[in-house]
Amino acid sequence: MLNIYSKISLAVLLVPSISYSSEGGHGDEHHEHGENKIEKIQVTASRLGRIVAESATRTEIINGEEIQEKALMRPGNISMLVAETGGVRVQNTSPALGSANIRLQSMYGRYTQLLSDGLPLYGGQTASIGLLQIPPTDLANVEIIKGSASSLYGGSALGGVINLISRTPSDDVEGEVLLNATSKNGQDITTYFSTPINNATSVSVTSGLHNQEQQDLDSDGWIDMAHYQRATIRPRLYWESESGANLYLTFGAMMEEREGGTVERATVPDGNPFKQSQDSLRLDSGFIFDQPLGDVLNLNVRGSVMRQEHDHVNGLVEENDYHESYLLESSVSGYSDTIAWLVGVAYQSDRFDSEKFSEFNYNYQVPGLFSQVDYDARDDISLSLSARTDWHSEYGTQVSPRISMFYNPENWTVRGSYGQGFFAPTPFIEDIEEAGLSRLAPLENLEEELATTASIDFSYLVDNIETSVTLFASDVDNVAELEEIPSYEIHSDKQVRIVNALGKSEIRGAELLVRYRWRDLKLTGSYLYTDASKKNQSVIGREPLTLTPKHSAGAVIMWEEHGSHLIGFEAYYTGTQYLEDNPHRTKSEAYWHLGLLGQITVGRVSYFLNAENLLNVRQTKSESLLLPEQDPSGRWTKDIWSRNDGFTVNAGVRVQFGH
């Protein structure tokens, strides 16, 4: 059967110097707590043989234990899983359909590259709705790299990377079934099954069925929680030869119907009904092949294909389109006593095709070269240098460097990083994903979006306490944003256009994390400060970035005895946010989100009950989501700055079998 290194490295398939702990926490290490000691458990899983605690590139981990907890709260998607990580914000981009994206350290969600086992199975630019179509059932870990990672993954990772690490099969048959129902008339069924085939091969299959009935919580005729029905399936295969060669194969299929807008017989303020819907079909596949070349060299080849079809309805406008993305990559790595290196070539393709709005069709072809060198100057000091050159078919040659530093004196760990990267603009910025393309003018004279990011992190570990402070900064040039076309320029039904913003968007901030564990009790506290601004278009000076709270914080206390019970309480604070295009206010209210989770396990059966949003926070309690008149872009709703679901209870049962 596959040895643990092979199985984990196959599933993770990470870039150089990025690695993880098999049971890690949000930080860089995990600790199994006995009566009087802490045992550090680390697994080497990167292509350059680095481990998290000694890697110059900081990789934050959401471990399997936390994933299992969050899966009880939200079995249908990973939004809850990533939203409660410091420096990570899940931003709702469509009150009509409920879609959302992931913002890392306040950078726009389109800059976050979402990967599955190191492969872009959800596309080069993951659609906002895609975040809500990925169940957490089969995840073993989640890895998060904040700041520009274009030197590692190309232009899609301008703001960072979230890598979803799947479970690897054990030597025995195992699996689970989870049934869940919510007080808002939602239901989920998820399954996971894995088995060895022979001494060299094992397989796993994950599947899910999800349903949510529409909810108009404030009875204004506008659907606050969209109706959807979704089915997913993902088989995986793991193979290892006696010579050490490894092969990983995966295939995924997802089909969803989602409807929002006005309820039956209701209208928007202009007196007409307004339906919004999106039917999605996504098919993807990927592979990774590893082959040792002697004692110190290794060959890695990987590839992926994704096709996603959408049928949209926005009022009276229907759109049919598809996205395709391809990746083929090959690299060779090697090492000596103090140096590990890697060089590789990559070819990426990203294509969009619309039947009705063909003026927005694009077909980006991006060959590239990348390399990385890790150098251990001393036992407690190491450096990592990486660089990538991409030849973009539309935006020309792009060079993306990154340097990271690691220093580990006694109980302290200090990491610093500096990186640059680019992002190729598409029509699908946040404001357009909700409104559709019908009122958008063709893209003209856009330049690539560029970012420079830097951070320094200080961590201190003593006994059962772990603390860390991170200072970060980002400057983003040529941000693609939506603007209304002046009336004297309008010569058709196009009323908005995408332009490059004047001046830089500047983001400065700090994260604080404190973690304490004692026997079966775990306490975590976090705080995030963000100062984000952009150049004001009409006057001299700067203005705050919208939908970016300056202060946010969280606290979690969890008491768990494995195989018996779990009780958890969490509290998250979101500070005020600046708003635009909201006729009722320019600044949001601060709010708290409180949750309570309980689970009892009897043998292989677990019964769980989860209460979310105990204070019943809901934006529509203080104001309607509807605008008094339709926005020039075509949207009828304001931005979501708060929650939109109110107090919710979900309960269910999880049955595990096998190993």
Structure description:
With 659 residues, the chain is mainly beta. The chain has a 22-stranded antiparallel β-barrel. It has a four-stranded mixed sheet with strand order 3-7-8-6. Strands 1-2 form a two-stranded antiparallel ribbon. A hairpin with a 2-residue loop joins strand 18 and strand 19. The N terminus is likely disordered.
Give a topology summary:
Blueprint: H1 4-12, E1 31-33, E2 38-40, E3 60-62, H2 64-73, H3 79-83, E4 88-92, E5 100-104, E6 112-116, E7 139-146, H4 150-153, E8 160-166, E9 174-182, E10 186-196, E11 201-212, E12 227-240, E13 246-261, E14 275-293, E15 297-314, E16 317-335, E17 339-354, E18 362-378, E19 381-392, E20 396-407, E21 412-423, H5 430-435, E22 449-462, E23 465-477, E24 480-484, E25 496-500, E26 505-518, E27 521-535, E28 542-544, E29 551-561, E30 565-574, E31 591-602, E32 605-612, E33 648-658
Parallel strand pairs: 6-8
Antiparallel strand pairs: 1-2, 3-7, 4-5, 7-8, 9-10, 9-33, 10-11, 11-12, 12-13, 13-14, 14-15, 15-16, 16-17, 17-18, 18-19, 19-20, 20-21, 21-22, 22-23, 23-26, 24-25, 26-27, 27-28, 27-29, 29-30, 30-31, 31-32, 32-33
Work out the helix count: 5
Q: What is the level 1 CATH name?
A: Mainly Beta
| Share of β-strand residues | over 45%
| Helix percentage | under 10%
Radius of gyration: 24 Å
Low-confidence region ranges: 1-47
Tally the beta strands: 33
Tell me the CATH topology. Maltoporin, Chain A
What would you call the structural class? mainly beta
Q: What form results from the Cα inertia axes?
A: globular
Mean pLDDT equals: 88
* Largest β-sheet summary: 22 strands, antiparallel, barrel
CATH homologous superfamily annotation: TonB-dependent receptor, beta-barrel domain
Distance between the termini: 15 Å
How many domains? The number is: 1
